[in-house]
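Reading a protein record of the kind used here takes little practice once its layout is understood. The fold follows as a row of integers, each naming the local backbone shape at the matching residue. With these conventions in mind, the following record can be read line by line:

_____
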Amino acid sequence: AALLGDCARKGSVVSRANSIGSTSASSVPNTDDEDSDYHQEPYKESYKDQRRRAHTQAEQKRRDAIKKGYDDLQAIVPTCQQQDFSIGSQKLSKAIVLQKTIDYIQFLHKEKKKQEEEVSILRKEVMALKIMKVNYEQIVKAHQDNPNEGKDQISDQMKFNVFQGVMDSLFQSFNASISVTSFQELSACVFSWIEEHCKPQTLRDIVIGVLHQLKSQLY
């Protein structure tokens, strides 16, 4: 009876051990099956990373555009291509490129103003030549229309007196209008005087006045 009791107890213990073992085994995951079914997903860039990458690209484009602008200025501006012995063979800094560009633009403005003044003087000269051309054409036409008028009726001295009277009147206005501070100012004043005092109507009035004066002396 004692032996049978021991066997029964041992059987009960083994039975409980087997049931516990089977329960534990069923609770352990089947790693082999799960490893075979597992697929690693690719890395997805976050919105923050995308913005950071876009900002970096935009900043790089901006820097490249600025660098290209300075390179273009250095290639276009002649003074940037000249060797500066104070700098040597070093690459010009952005500040130096900007300063040389500003200086060159100011130089171009001065040259433009100078050329505009020269053009103005040339226009005045052309106007004066046109006036003289018209005057000579009128004189030639008057002589062709009346070739014998007044011929051999007055002396050469009288013709000289007419010319002298006209020149005296012109010289008075010329002397009062011309400035000799500089050659450039002299040139400008001469052409201004021609436009004002050598117009056909003005010269005609001077000649008429001289003729009236000489006529009064003769008669």
The first helix runs from residue 2 to 27. DSSP finds eight helices and no strands in the chain. Confidence is low (pLDDT under 50) at residues 20-36.
